[in-house]
Amino acid sequence: MQRILITGAASGLGKGLAETWAKRLGKQAKICIADVNDERGQEVVSQLQGQVADVLYVHCDITSESDISELANILQTRWGGVDTVVNNAGVATGGSLLGESIEQWQWVMDINVLGMVRVSQRFLPMFRKQGSGRFINIASQAGITPVPCMGSYNAAKAAVVGLSETWYLEFKPQNIDVHVVCPSFFKTNLDESMRTSEPTARMMMDRMFDKATMTTEQVAAYILDAVEKQQFLIVTHPEGRLAYRLKKFLSRPRYLATMAKKTGGMVKRMLAEHQERKGE
User: Where is the signal peptide (predicted)?
Assistant: First the structure.
């Protein structure tokens, strides 16, 4: 029996993972949908009822330690523990350095980085007591091959990658696995949570979502296949894997020059927009 907790599972990739696990494991799965959107969360529970051994929704804001503690207590009481924690809940931000306020930086870091830390700190003792467990941390392609005008988001997702590598080394002797997932854009609702004060950043993000080549279901299936193969770094998109290889194997000056050429037009538009707004 697999006992699975997914944060941010009321929609998007979290929902896709829940649905894919339900199809693959059936009655061998127990799935907890944790989210702040109660209506959507209950809809996912209704959809999965009957497919898996047990499914429940728990309201959980990952910026609230009391919410996370209550979530852990519920699952300990109902299931006797958890086998897999998917740190999926997250938000999106965009903008140039001068276009992103400190408040925006604090918002994305509190959810995308510290939220993952809070959840992991609460469930690690449970894993240790059980003698096993698995964290699957959802980062982003932005965490390994960043582009301009997404500074806070890039930094938050790079932190998720760095923490995941740290925890892999830290938890391995305790029989606790860690995986980190770096998807590119796919057809999801992440843009609903996006914060930006710059129309060019919003336009860029919307264009990338519109051009997405993979569906949520395809991304979820790729992730579960890679987890089964015990891959640590999971880069879901072919173009993302190519970009990561280029970064690894090209010299740093050549890689940066290539990226600067590709993204220069976007940076110029963002700068012009900022100057117009400030009357410079």
Answer: none
Which residue carries 């060019």 as its tokens? 200
For tokens 């930086």, the residue is 105
Cβ-based burial of 55 (10 A; exposed 0-12, middle 13-18, buried ≥19): buried
Tell me which of 153, 168, 222, 255 is the catalytic residue.
153
Q: How does residue 266 score in pLDDT terms, banded at 50, 70 and 90?
A: low
Q: Who has greater pLDDT, 266 or 182? A: 182
Please state at what angle helix 216-228 crosses helix 12-25, rounded to 10 degrees.
Answer: 60
pLDDT the model gives residue 68? 98
**CA distance linking residue 226 with residue 234, whole number of Å:** 7
Q: Is 238 exposed, middle or buried (0-12, 13-18, 19+ CB in 10 A)?
A: exposed
* Chain center to CA of 94: 16
Q: How many CB atoms lie within 10 A of CB 239?
A: 13
> What's the average model confidence in pLDDT over 124-144?
98
CB-CB contact of 246 with 235 (8 Å):
no
SS3 149: coil
Whose CA is closest to 34, among 74, 71, 3, 66?
A: 71
Domains along the sequence of the chain with CATH: 2-249 (3.40.50.720)
Which residues contact residue 260 at a Cβ distance below 8 angstroms, ignoring those fewer than 6 apart? none
Measured CA angle at 244 (ends 238, 247), to 5 deg: 145
- Helix 38-48 / helix 12-25 crossing angle, nearest 10 deg: 20
222 labelled catalytic: no
Please report, as a single letter, which amino acid is at residue 118. Answer: R
